[in-house]
Design goal:
By secondary structure, this protein is α/β, with parallel strands linked by helices. Helices cover 35% and strands 22% of the residues. It has two domains: 277 residues, P-loop containing nucleotide triphosphate hydrolases (Rossmann fold, 3-Layer(aba) Sandwich), CATH 3.40.50.300; 243 residues, Class I glutamine amidotransferase (GATase) domain (Rossmann fold, 3-Layer(aba) Sandwich). The structure holds glutamine (GLN).
C-alpha cells in the first residue's frame, strides 16, 4: 500500500506547487522509495486538450496518449517516471465517469451526490498507484477556498480518515509576501489560508512558504504557532536560479527526514548527493548560446514550456547556458528578428496564424545553415517551405491551412480520418519510427527504431516524398513505411524536423538526443 502526500496551495496561484511537490518526490526517490505523482485539476474540461495555451500553457502529452497539464512534464522530468492517463485527473473527467455510471444504472436508484459519489470516484483515482509505488504525491490544483476544489479537498480529508494518520499527510504551499513599505514579511495570508484548510477539516503537516526574502527563526516560530505545525515543518522556498536546485534547498532544511518520520517510513538508502552535484555543476556554465523559438505564443512562455526545458536540460549536459529568444512569427519582422541566433526552433501549433512567418524563418535557417529543429507543425512548415522554394510548387500547402491547395504536401491521411475519438481525430501518444542508417537522425539517436510522442492530425503527404527528396529534403524516419516521421536537409550541418514531440522526453542527466544535438551544433556554429 502506498503512502500519500497531498500538496495544496494557499493565498495565490502560481506558487510553484508542482515544483515543490516534484522536488519532494525527487528527494524521496533519492532515498530509495518508488514515488509517483498525480495532478488533480478542478476544472470541468475533461482534459486540457482543447484549452488555449493562453489559458493553460502547454498541453503535455503522455506516452499513452493523455493530453495533460504541464505539471506532468515537471513530474516526469524530475522523477524520470513515465506519466500515464492515471497521473492526471480533472473534475470534468470525474463527473463524466459518475454520470456514465449513473446512466448505466450502476447506482441502483439512489440519488447521485457530490458526497459520496464524486468523492468516491476521486478517492479511487488517488489510489491509482497503491500497489506499485511506496509513495504517491497528489497535487490539488487551484487555491484553497476555490469552490471547484472543494470535492477534491473533501476526498483528501476522507482519505486521511480511511487510511490512517500515519499514511497520509498534507504539505500546504503558501505565500509569505514582503511588504516593502513596512520592510517586513507578512504571515497573515498564510494564517488565513491555513484556517480555510482547517475549516474543510485538513490540518497541514508542512508549510512550504514561497518568499523573496529569508524567513527568520522568529517568523518561523510565529507561523508554527499560529498555523499549528511543528517549527521544523515551516520550510522556506525561495526563488532558485534553476528549478532543479530546489530539491537540495528542501533537503538542507530537513524536509525529507521530516516526511519519512511523519509517514513512519524507513529510508531505503542514503542520498549519495550525485544528483545535487550534477545539477549544481550544470547550472553554472560559462558559455552561452541563444536559441530562437519562432512560434505564435511568444508572449506566453508556458506555451512552449517543455521545449524551453528541453533546451535548458540540453544546455546543462553540454555545460552551456541556453538563452531562449521567443519570436512572434505573426508580428516580429522575419528574418530581421532572427539575426544573431545560434539555432532556431519552430515548435508545434495549430491553425493558420503565424504560418508565413514560420516558413520564412525556416527558409532563413536553411539558406544560412543555422542549426534548425522543426517540431510537429514545425516539420509541416519545413515540408511546405521545401515544396515552395526548392521544388517550385508555389501554392504547396497544408490542407489544415488551405483545404483547396492543388499541392497538398501536408494533409490528413485517410486512415486518420477514420479514427473517431473524443477530442477529434488526433494521433496521440507513442508511435514507433524506423530510422534510416547514415542519416543525421541515426547519428543522434544511435538507434534503428524509436518511440516518440505525437499530437497532430496532419502528415507529410508521402506522395510528395520522391519530388522533395530530389530537391534535397530527405526523409530519415518512417512509421511503418507509411508516414514520414523525420525529415532532414543533409546539405546543412544540422537541419532536422520531426513530426512528433521530442520535448516531452527530456530529463536532467539524459537530454533528448535531438535537443542535445541542436545545442552541440549551436555551440559549433557560434565558434565558426
Ligand atoms: N496542427 C498540426 C496538426 O494537427 C500540427 C500539430 C502540432 O504541432 N502539435 O497536424
Amino acid at each position: 500500500m502506498s503512502k500519500f502526500i497531498f500538496v495544496t496551495g494557499g493565498v495565490v496561484s502560481s506558487l510553484g506547487k508542482g515544483i515543490t511537490g516534484a522536488s519532494l518526490a525527487k528527494l524521496l526517490q533519492l532515498r530509495g522509495f518508488k514515488v509517483n505523482m498525480i495532478k488533480c485539476d478542478p476544472y470541468i474540461n475533461i482534459d486540457p486538450g482543447t484549452l488555449s495555451p493562453y489559458q493553460h500553457g502547454e498541453v503535455f502529452v503522455t506516452a499513452d496518449g493523455a493530453e495533460a497539464d504541464l505539471d506532468l512534464g515537471t513530474y516526469e522530468r524530475f522523477l524520470d517516471v513515465p506519466m500515464t492517463k492515471a497521473n492526471t485527473t480533472t473534475a470534468g473527467g470525474i463527473y463524466q465517469t459518475v454520470i456514465d455510471n449513473e446512466r448505466r444504472g450502476d447506482y441502483n436508484g439512489v440519488t447521485v451526490q457530490v458526497i459520496p459519489h464524486i468523492t468516491n470516484e476521486i478517492k479511487k483515482r488517488f489510489a491509482a498507484f497503491d500497489k506499485n509505488f511506496d509513495i504517491t504525491i497528489i497535487e490539488i490544483g487551484g487555491t484553497v477556498g476555490d469552490i471547484e476544489g472543494l470535492p477534491f479537498l473533501e476526498a483528501a480529508r476522507q482519505f486521511r480518515v480511511e487510511r490512517g494518520r500515519e499514511n497520509v499527510m498534507t504539505l500546504h504551499a503558501t505565500l509569505v509576501p514582503y511588504i516593502s513599505s513596512a520592510g517586513e514579511l507578512k504571515t497573515k495570508p498564510t494564517q488565513h489560508s491555513v484556517n480555510k484548510l482547517r475549516e474543510i477539516g485538513i490540518e497541514p503537516d508542512v508549510l512550504a512558504c514561497r518568499t523573496e526574502h529569508p524567513i527568520s527563526d522568529s517568523m518561523k516560530k510565529k507561523l508554527s504557532l499560529f498555523c499549528s505545525v511543528e517549527p521544523a515543518a515551516v520550510i522556506e522556498v525561495m526563488d532558485a536560479p534553476s528549478i532543479y536546485l530546489v530539491p537540495e534547498e528542501l533537503e538542507k532544511q530537513g524536509l525529507t527526514d521530516l516526511v519519512i518520520k511523519r509517514l513512519n517510513l524507513k529510508a531505503k538508502k542514503k542520498n549519495d548527493g550525485k544528483w545535487f552535484d550534477f545539477v549544481r555543476k550544470a547550472t553554472s556554465p560559462k558559455k552561452q548560446i541563444t536559441v530562437g523559438i519562432a512560434g505564435k505564443y511568444a508572449e506566453l512562455k508556458d506555451a512552449y514550456k517543455s521545449v524551453a526545458e528541453s533546451l535548458y536540460l540540453a544546455g546543462m549536459s553540454n555545460k552551456v547556458s541556453v538563452k531562449v529568444k521567443y519570436i512572434n512569427t505573426q508580428k516580429d519582422p522575419i528574418p530581421a528578428s532572427l539575426k544573431g541566433l545560434d539555432a532556431i526552433i519552430v515548435p508545434g501549433g495549430f491553425g493558420k496564424r503565424g504560418i508565413p512567418g514560420k516558413i520564412e524563418a525556416i527558409k532563413y535557417a536553411r539558406e544560412n545553415k543555422i542549426p534548425f529543429l522543426g517540431i510537429c507543425l514545425g516539420m509541416q512548415c519545413t515540408v511546405i517551405e521545401a515544396a515552395r522554394n526548392l521544388a517550385g510548387l508555389k501554392d504547396a500547402d497544408s490542407t489544415e491551412i488551405n483545404p483547396d491547395t492543388k499541392n497538398p504536401v501536408v494533409a490528413m491521411m485517410e486512415d486518420q480520418k477514420k479514427i473517431k475519438k473524443l477530442g477529434g481525430t488526433m494521433r496521440l501518444g507513442n508511435y514507433s519510427a524506423k530510422i534510416r542508417k547514415g542519416s543525421l537522425a541515426h547519428k543522434l539517436y544511435k538507434k534503428d527504431t524509436i518511440e516518440e510522442r505525437h499530437r497532430h492530425r496532419y502528415e507529410y503527404n508521402p506522395q510528395f516524398v520522391p519530388l522533395l527528396e530530389n530537391c534535397g529534403l530527405k526523409v530519415s524516419a518512417w512509421h511503418k513505411e507509411l508516414l514520414p516521421e523525420i525529415v532532414e536537409y543533409p546539405k546543412n550541418p544540422f537541419f532536422i524536423a520531426v513530426q512528433f514531440h521530442p520535448e516531452f522526453a527530456s530529463r536532467p542527466l539524459k537530454p533528448h538526443p535531438l535537443f542535445d544535438g541542436l545545442a552541440k551544433a549551436a555551440l559549433k556554429n557560434k565558434k565558426n
